[in-house]
Each structure stands twice: as C-alpha cells, then as structure tokens.
Amino acid sequence: ANDSDLGPNGEIEYTLHQAIDPVPKLLRIDRSSGIIYVKGPLDREEINNLKFYVVARDKGPSPKSSKTYVSIDVTDQNDNAPAVEIRGIGLVTHSDGVANISEDMPVGTAVALVQVSDKDEGENAVVTCVVAGDVPFQLRPASDSSVDNKRKYFLQTTTPLDYERVRDYRVEIVAVDSGNPALSSTNSLKVQVTDTNDNSPVFSPTLFEVEFAEENQPGEKVVDVVASDADSGTNAELVYSIIADSSTRGLFEIDPSSGEVRARSPLDREHKERYEFRVTAADKGVPSHRGTATVVIKVLDRNDNDPKFMLSGYSFSVLENMPPLSPVGMVTVQDMDEGENAQVQLSVEPDVGKFVIQNGTGTILSSISFDREKESSYTFRLKAVDGGDPPRSSYVGVTINVLDENDNAPVVTKPSNSSFIRLSPMAAPDSVVEVVEAEDIDSGSNAELVYSIAGGNPHDLFYISPSNGEITLTKELTRKHSGLHRLVVKVSDRGKPSRHAIALVHIYVNETIANVSHVEALVGHSLYTPLDMDIAGDPDYGLAAQRSNIVYGSLAGVAGVVTVIVVVVFIRHRLQREAKSGYQAGKKETKDLYAPKQGPKSGKGRKGKKGKPPKSPKPLGEDEEVSLQKSLKFNLDGVNDSPRIHLPLTYPPGSPDLGRHYRSNSPLPSIQLQAQSPSASQKHQAVQELPAANTFVGTGGDDNSTGSD
C-alpha cells in the first residue's frame, strides 16, 4: 500500500483481517512489508483455497486504513500415490483376496472389478493401470465416462484356463500416475482355477522345434505333433488345430486327426527364418477340454540368392597426389543367404594394376598416385562371388573421380608481358582499356580466378574487374598521364593455399604512335624495371612543370614591370599636357619667332643640296614621340584647337641651335591635313629632313606653320 503522508502518518502497518481458520494457522503477514508467508504445511487435498482481507493502517494520531481482498489458490503437488481397489464381480466369488473361477469359463470372463483413484488433480491424477507379468488376464475399462482421478476396469481372462496346466495365478495390478516424478502403487489378486473335467489333452513335449529347408514344395510335411488324454471314449478323442497369428496365418495347416503339420506354400528363409505358432488338442467331451503346444520352425538356408551390392553403382571422389595404397572408397555387399552361401569374395575387373580391394572390409585401395590433370576419372567393375555350390555372383560399376588439388598456378594467356596497347588521352572514364585473360588447369574453386592490380597504378587511373579481368579507365586523363603505364596485375586462384601469376599490362597514353620503336624500347626497359617501381605516365612532367612555373613567373614579372612603365609614362604625359606653356592662341608673338611664307600646296617638296629631292615625311611611333617631346620640351596639345605650333621661348642647355640651319627669311614647309585624314583625336606628325643631330616635329592644323631660330 502507498501513503502520501510523511513521518508516522506515512508509515504503514499490515494485518490480516477476517481471517478464519485455517488461515491464521497456515499464513502470517509481515506487519511492515506486507509480505505474506506460509506458516504451516499446506495440503491441497484438505483445503485448496484461502480467502481473507489484509488491512493497511498508518501510524498517525488518527490512523487511517484501507483493506484489500486476498484469495490464495493452493496448487497441487504429486504427493499422493494412486489407490488400487479390487472387488468381486458376477459369478466369480472372492474370499480373503482370492478369486475362484472355473476352468471352463470363456475367454474374456470378468474376474474382478478394479477401481483406481488418485487424490491429486490434473496430470498428477491421470493414472495408467496395467497387469504386470505374463498372465492370461487383462484390464478393460468398465465405462468411457470415468473421470481422470477415478477409473474402473474389469479384470478379465485373455486365454482359456486349464486346471491341469495351471491351477492358480497371482495377478499383480500396477497403477502409475502422470506426475513428475510419477508415483505408483500395486495391488494383487490370487486367481484359483477350479476343475470341471478330470483330464484334458496333454502334448508331450509342449514345444516342438524343427528345422525345415526353404524352397519346399507345397503340402510338404513339417512336423507331427501328438497329444494324449487320460480320459477315455469320446473324451479322449482329440482334434488338432492351429492357433495362428498374422505372421503364420495361411502358411501352415494341421491334420485334425493325426496332428501332422504341413507347409501350404514355399518358405523363404530370407523373408523369415523362424516361425512360431500354437496348436491345440481338444477332446470331444461335453464340455470339451483342450490342450496346447507350441511349434517353432527354423527355416534352413539354400544358396538361392546372388550377392547384392548395396548400391547399383558407386562413385567416389579422391584428392589427387595421394600416395599409393591409399583408401579411395568402400563398398558394401550382402548375401541374403547364410553360412558359406553368404561368404563373398571381391575382385576388380578388369584388373590393370591400378586398384585393389580388401575382402572383408570392402575397401578399395589405389596402387598409383593420381594426377587429375592427366586423368580425372577411372571406371571399372567389382565382382562379388559367394561360397555356395554352385557359386552365385554379381557385378557393380565403380567410378573414381579425382578431385583437384591446387597444384597448378594460373597462366596468363593475354596480354603478353612485352606487348602494349595505345590509349587516347581523350578516352572517357569507364571505357574498357584491356582484358586480362588467364586459365588454370585445376578445377572447382582452385580454378576460380581473381584479378587485382598489385602495382603501377599510383594515380588510380585504372580498375580491373576481379571476376573477368576487364581493365577500365576510372577518371579523365591529363597531360601528366601521357606516356607509358605499366600495370602489375596479380591473378590468384581461390585454392587453399592460393596460387597466383603476375602479368604486365603496358598502356601507352598518346594521341598516336609516331615512333613504335620508341614505345617498344620503353616496354623493353619496363621488363627490367623492378615491380615495386611505378611506371605511370611522363616521367619528365614534374620537371617540365617546374620549368614552366619559372618561365611563367619570369614573364609575369616582366609584364608587371612593363605595365608600371607604361602607367608612369602615361601619367607623366598627361601632366605635361596640363602644364601648357609658349604661344597661346590669339596672342602675337614678338620674340625670336619667324612667320614663314605659305608653302606651295602641291605635294612636291623643295630640292635640297646636290639636287636631291627632300625625303618625304614619315610617321613616328609613340615611343619616338615621347622621346622627342622630352628633348625639345614642347607639347602637342591643341592640335585640333590651334593652327600654330607652340615652342618654348627658353631652351634648356644642349638644345639644338636651329638658327645655324635656318635663316629668318627661310620659309618652313607647311604640313597639310587633308580632308580624308584620320579623326581629330589622332595625332599626325611629319619629320623634316634635318641634320642628324636635330629633328623638327610639326603638327598639321592649317596651311600656315611657324618656325624659330
């Protein structure tokens, strides 16, 4: 019970409530835990259920309580043995535990009523009752409606009773229940046979044993049985008969008057070699009396059966390489006859000296050591001959299958170690590259091959199928993969221990094969390269990559320097254009400037000294222009805005003295910009023929130009 209070208010005490006898005598309850214990021995047969209440009460100032109903079922233990009670019944009288029955009572006469009971229940009360010993009595259920723990049986006779043979019987009845362990009890009854006739027929002897050969003729005499009767007249006249069971019915017959037993059909010892049945001799008295005897017939053997092998054919499997005289198999042969007729000799046919057989055990021994690869099976016959007269024989075929031993390593048939195959660098992944083919002359699992790549695949470019040896490409090829690849393929069988072979697969990755001799030289070098060294692609690719990195770095550095120079020049050029100086448009020049005459508009130039025509102006490059601007210190700004050339009024030291070459009245040729000239944003320069130390640059704006000394 649970109490949600705390302290004494939550402490619970348990007591039995309304517990009437025998509950207080048999049970007790722990006051603090509520556990109910057995206090005295329980006997289910006396009381099988205990009912009472349990009160749970707390220890508070005002105790509160609660009660619950408890019912305990006492289960059964097999502690009671069955009880057997024997009572008289019908015309059979009982006195002091003895039943008296006349010998002329028919078979099945009830001698007593047997009642069996068990105080237990269930399986413990299920009782089996039998009659012990070899007595002519049995138990028959008296009704079909008996409960398990109480049954009634009739004790009845099973055979006729004969006062002259047995005058009394001790019938012991055993009852066993189904408990575990089982309990049993016994009770016995003495049955006395009362005489109603002075004498009955008597056989002498009562057991007739005879030997009779098989394969007899129908109606052939087996034995004579004779009985005698001390009576006279019709009471001494005997009639013989056979009490046959299912095993002898129809096989034998007896002459009713003479007692001659005959075989009605041929006997077969191999089918049954012993027969036993009973014969009776009954007198003709009223009531008739009879006597019985037992006839035992032992059937003798004749050699009427061939030796028979247990199987119609034998097939044995043996491992190859076994030493000579090793057992390879065992055969079993039987002869249904007996004695010498069943003694069998075995031999090998044809006897070529490869196998022998041991008589007695039927073990076949090999005289040779087997090699499955040379001969995988052997076939011969075994002959079995018995010792009868005349002898009988039989044959059986034997096949010896030689099992494979893993004594041969796989042999690679394709490709050759010195061959190669070209693979295009554009080959797609999962494409088939090559197929390795191998064979193993063993069989079974010893010939099952497993393919694997043992070396030469550092880039994991290739995969080989373990089952069929198909090599496929696993990833895309790159520049570093170009060249010769050598795959070390291991071909192993599944034998124990396993054997293997090594194959070299050469794959040349390239668009074409321009030089076959070169590739063959690479393959030849591969054959002398240790297998633990990888041959996979271009060996110089790493060095070439390093060289390329150096070149690319150098080019990048040069490009950077050039870029810096160009940027600096461009910025300086812009700054020079912004810092304009010299002649400005609309302002008259008054110092050291000469206005040259307008030159002719024709394209012909004035002849120079020695009558040579002046050189035609040629355009300058951008770098030359920049250099020229730096030396002459003038800008080319405003070509499209001003028709004049602006020259500085002051010259730095080292500037050319133009006055030495030009007089004040010397006109300067003008530079004409035609209408078809490039756009105004493009610069046009012309270089006039001057001494080597001086160069003059002009810009075309109109037909006028300016000069200076």
From TrEMBL:
Q: Name one GO cellular component term.
A: plasma membrane
Q: Give TM segment ranges.
A: 550-571
Q: What is this protein called?
A: Cadherin domain-containing protein
Q: What is its main location?
A: membrane
Q: Where is the composition biased (Basic and acidic residues)?
A: 580-594
| BP-aspect Gene Ontology terms | anatomical structure morphogenesis; cell adhesion
Subcellular location field = Cell membrane
Keywords on record: Calcium, Cell adhesion, Cell membrane, Glycoprotein, Membrane, Phosphoprotein, Repeat, Signal, Transmembrane, Transmembrane helix
Q: Which PANTHER family match?
A: CADHERIN-87A (PTHR24028), PROTOCADHERIN-1 (PTHR24028:SF247)
Name any one GO molecular function.
Answer: calcium ion binding
Per UniProt, what is the membrane topology?
Single-pass type I membrane protein
Q: Which PROSITE patterns does the entry mention?
A: CADHERIN_1, CADHERIN_2
Q: Which SMART domains match?
A: CA
**Basic residues bias: start-end ranges:** 603-615
Q: Region annotation Disordered: residue ranges?
A: 580-668
